[in-house]
From TrEMBL:
Name the UniProt record assigns to this protein: MFS family permease
Gene Ontology CC: plasma membrane
One MF annotation (Gene Ontology) recorded for this entry: transmembrane transporter activity
Primary localisation category: membrane
Entry's transmembrane regions: 67-87, 99-120, 126-149, 195-214, 256-275, 281-302, 314-332, 338-360, 372-394, 400-419
Positions of the Major facilitator superfamily (MFS) profile domain: 33-426
Subcellular location: Cell membrane
Claim: Cell membrane is one of the keywords in the record: yes
Lineage of the species this protein comes from: Bacteria, Pseudomonadati, Acidobacteriota, Terriglobia, Terriglobales
UniProt-listed SUPFAM superfamilies: MFS general substrate transporter
Gene3D superfamilies, alphabetized: MFS general substrate transporter like domains (1.20.1250.20)
Pfam family, one: MFS_3
Keywords assigned: Cell membrane, Membrane, Transmembrane, Transmembrane helix, Transport
Topology term for the membrane: Multi-pass membrane protein
């Protein structure tokens, strides 16, 4: 049969393909590794929430002091405040899989020890607080590495869904764990026996996570060709980045303002359950679990909510909901009224915290992601820890209703001010790495990695008509240089030739300069291209590298080792 020369007619358009493809929120679960880690971590979080309820209730049995009870929340939050940046730095330097294995084992050991001491009745308020603190040292060091591996488990476009699913798993455990923890304590004649069994179950819940991590064959997305940073240098680099990242600072500020007032719910809910509602451990677990159940619903529905409601509105609505929740906890004594409002508050909680978490994750490049998450966890925990102390002191010296009412007022008063700080507003910069063809400049001498300080000068020639636009654009480069490691930056005009302008910045050492080049992102390239487009010289801008001159002890090779 001869072949037809008539072209095939175009296929009929598929009406289903024409429809917008909306995310269901469950796409990351199709990835086997993410799914396995999600299940294992949900089980571990279930044990953690059982422990939280049992531990807090055990404290109410060991002491009647509202301050000591509120300090359980501080013991959970303070390690993150102290160690957040260190945790992020270690997660950006060392292999994240090995770090996670170590800290999961640490938490298992801390909870197992607490279980043994409680079984043998070697327990007191301060022993409970100390071991809770040690447990949460592990949680603090584990968290940035855990969150930073998400881009390694799912495609970047699925990252919002992965964050929401992690929140859903966490809050699913929160919905069920407190009630199970309260039931475990109530099932025994003595609260300490029930608490001891709960602590033992929690220690076993870490085993699943350890097994999945042990079997993971990790391939990092980005691995630097340069020597690893030192811990304190890494922390300094993380702090410097935050200093020059306005989107990140806005998310941090709003997180702190929100958590410092909302912490009143978590720190005083046990006091409300025991003293105002006259409920036992099971009743407290149900109240706590109600927030968790609402949080699960919030995490599940959040992808749909984000399509119609902006991040700023989500945070504003959640703030108003929590203000109402605090007032109801302060003045209403009917569980049938309190439980529904706690369900709504749980929805608001997970919606807000997932929004803040996502804002941090997508507002930084990969090289500093764990440090940014560590700083975020530190800000979050700082708000929770400081707030818990404040509301615990007010409750102890005045009353619990007054403490809750003051927290509600604080949320409403600060809302108009915090709303001025943008979160996930507008188009975000492209933080994907940009690689130049020549990573190392070709120089007449080969500097040692530690040699410095290093001054870089870049010469531009700019027409008078472009002068103002150039100066405006080059000051955007200032932020890039300082954010990625420069100690100082300046732009200078040649007094003898007004067309000649020199950009200069100083790096602490040669390796810091190489790292700065490695950290260049696609968004940074756009800014640089805008600057270079106004250069009118025949050749590209000339770059000069100068290294601080020190007296040489060996004339055959420049070195600064003995110049100190």
């Amino acid at each position: 049969m001869p072949l037809s020369t008539t072209p095939n007619p175009p296929p009929a358009p598929d009406p289903e393909a024409a429809k917008p493809q909306y995310s269901t929120g469950f796409e990351p679960l199709h990835a086997p590794l993410f799914r396995s880690l999600w299940i294992a971590s949900t089980v571990s979080n279930l044990g953690g929430w059982m422990q939280d309820t049992a531990g807090t209730w055990l404290m109410t049995v060991l002491t009647t002091s509202p301050l000591l009870i509120a300090l359980m929340q501080t013991a959970a939050s303070l390690p993150v405040v102290i160690l957040g940046l260190l945790a992020g730095a270690t997660a950006d330097i060392f292999d994240r899989r090995r770090l996670l294995l170590f800290w999961q084992a640490w938490m298992l050991a801390a909870v197992a020890l607490l279980s043994v001491l409680t079984f043998f009745n070697i327990i007191s308020p301060w022993v409970l607080l100390t071991l809770t603190f040690l447990l949460n040292i592990g949680a603090a060091m584990n968290s940035p590495a855990w969150q930073a591996i998400m881009p390694e488990l799912v495609p970047r476009e699925q990252l919002p869904e992965a964050v929401s699913l992690n929140s859903a798993g966490f809050n699913l455990a929160r919905a069920v764990g407190p009630a199970l923890g309260g039931l475990a304590v109530a099932a025994f004649t003595h609260a300490d026996t029930g608490a001891a069994w709960t602590f033992l179950l929690n220690s076993l819940s870490f085993v699943g996570v350890i097994l999945v991590l042990y079997q993971w064959k990790r391939v990092p997305i980005f691995k630097s060709a340069l020597p690893a940073e030192r811990i304190f240098g890494s922390i300094r680099a993380g702090l410097r980045y935050v200093q020059y990242a306005p989107l990140l600072k806005a998310a941090f500020a709003r997180t702190f303002i929100f958590t410092i007032f909302v912490s009143a719910v978590w720190s005083l809910l046990a006091v409300v359950a025991a003293r105002d509602l006259h409920q036992g451990a099971l009743g407290y677990g149900i109240l706590n679990g109600s927030m968790g159940l609402g949080a699960v619903a919030g995490a599940t529905l959040l992808p749909r909510v984000r399509r119609v409601v902006s991040a700023d509105k989500i945070i504003a609505f959640s703030t108003c909901i929590f203000a109402a929740t605090l007032l109801i906890l302060a003045f209403v004594r009917y569980p049938l009224v309190i439980i529904p409002i706690l369900l709504i508050a749980g929805f608001a909680w997970t919606s807000t915290m997932s929004t803040f978490n996502l804002a941090v994750q997508i507002s930084v490049p990969g090289w500093v992601q764990a440090r940014a998450l560590g700083a975020y966890q530190m800000v979050f925990a700082g708000g929770m820890a400081i707030g818990s102390v404040i509301w615990g002191l007010i409750a102890e010296h005045i009353s619990t209703p007054v403490s809750l009412a003051v927290a509600a007022g604080g949320l409403l008063i600060t809302l108009p001010f915090s709303a001025r700080l943008p979160v996930l507003r507008g188009e975000l910069p492209d933080f994907s790495p940009f690689r130049t063809k020549h990573q190392t400049p070709q120089l007449a001498i080969e500097p040692e990695m530690s040699q410095g300080p290093v001054r870089i000068l870049i010469d531009y020639y700019v027409d008078e008509k472009d002068y103002n636009n150039f100066v405006h654009a080059i000051h955007k480069m200032k932020v890039v240089r300082l954010r990625d490691g420069a100690m100082r930056w300046g732009i200078f005009q040649d007094a003898s030739d007004p067309r000649h302008l020199t950009e200069t910045f100083i790096m602490e050492s040669w390796i810091d300069y190489l790292r700065q080049r490695e950290r260049f992102t696609t968004s940074d390239r756009t800014i640089r291209d805008q600057v270079v487009s106004m250069h009118c010289g025949e050749e590209p801008p000339q770059i000069t590298y100068t290294i601080y001159a020190r007296e040489r002890t060996n004339e055959t090779a420049p070195s600064n080792e003995d110049a100190e």
